[in-house]
Design brief:
Blueprint: H1 7-25, H2 32-46, H3 54-60, H4 67-75, E1 77-81, E2 84-88
Antiparallel strand pairs: 1-2
Helix pairs in contact: 2-3, 3-4
Length: 90
């Protein structure tokens, strides 16, 4: 019995933990499309992309234009409440 953990097992565990985190913070986003876009943004930021801008993150997430990512990253406002941070104006 080997106690070594392979890179594939580590990557799978990391992926599982990332999905749990995204589920946990998903309530911050009021719409399903925004939750999906935020998850794609996080995955893109963690991906081995040469540049991390709206176009690159959008393409990595499967979008044709950067406008949704740019809105999420630039124009969406976060508001602190008793339940934590909430995004408004989305």
């Amino acid at each position: 019995m080997s106690l070594l953990v392979t890179d594939e097992e580590r990557a799978e565990e990391f992926s599982d933990q990332l999905e749990l985190l995204l589920l946990e913070v998903g309530g911050v986003f009021p719409r399903a499309d925004l939750r999906h876009r935020a998850g794609a943004c996080i995955r893109g930021l963690l991906a081995p992309l040469s540049r991390k801008n709206g176009w690159q993150l959008s393409e990595y997430g499967g979008e044709l234009t950067p406008w949704g990512q740019q809105h999420l990253l630039d124009r969406a406002r976060a508001v602190a409440s008793s339940g934590g941070v909430r995004l408004v104006g989305l």
